[in-house]
Amino acid sequence: MSYSQFTTIGKVKEAFNLTVVEGIRFLPEIEPIAPSTALQTMLETNLPWAIATSTEKARSEAIINPVLLEVRRILNQQISVFSGEEFNVDVAVGLTGVCDFIISRSPEQLDVEAPVIVMVEAKKGDLKVGLGQCIAEMVAAQRFNEAKGRSISVIYGCVSSGTAWRFLKLEGQIVAIDLTDYPLPPVDKILGFLVWMMREN
């Protein structure tokens, strides 16, 4: 059993007694953040290749990871970004396995430290396919923070193909899913959302 078993929203709702609210925009109207020249150049180079290759790995490495590392740079390395990290929180209920991306408020990069704020699940195509797994990872983050004595009120999630980003929010037992798929490019709005999430809690 692992995060990947949660192939539908229904499975994760039933497993963790969650209520799902669809179509709620919880992201504020925020000022977009202009990318560094380095990120802009990297995306201009990487996007055509990642789109042509069209694998989750290519999109993760060439688009998603550089964007998350840019958020880390903007926040002066006061957060940590983990890629392809094992996150074994509760094996008995399937909250175990490898997560595509984990973002923590801790600057420590050698090990995942609480509080974990954002979970990002990479998909090459249909974002809906990744929602159940992302929600399970968000529940794991919530429980991880509680176990470490670093509970926070909201855990954010994102399912992304690199060129489309869909955001989720877990607050208590309620999951809100914004059904807008935010495009990249431009990267400015995505950076603004992610930085806001890290500062919000």
Question: What do you see in this structure?
Answer:
With 201 residues, the chain is an alpha+beta fold. It contains 5 helices and 8 strands. It has helices spanning 9-16, 37-53, 56-74, 131-147, 188-200, and strands at 19-22, 80-86, 98-104, 116-122, 155-160, 164-171, 174-177, 182-183. Strands 1, 2, 3, 4, 5, 6, 7 and 8 form an 8-stranded mixed β-sheet that branches. Strand 5 (155-160) and strand 6 (164-171) form a beta hairpin. Helix 2 runs antiparallel to helix 3 (56-74) and helix 3 (56-74) crosses helix 5 (188-200). The chain is globular and about 45 Å long. The mean pLDDT is 95.
Give the topology.
Blueprint: H1 9-16, E1 19-22, H2 37-53, H3 56-74, E2 80-86, E3 98-104, E4 116-122, H4 131-147, E5 155-160, E6 164-171, E7 174-177, E8 182-183, H5 188-200
Parallel strand pairs: 1-7, 4-5
Antiparallel strand pairs: 2-3, 3-4, 5-6, 6-7, 6-8
Helix pairs in contact: 1-4, 2-3, 3-5
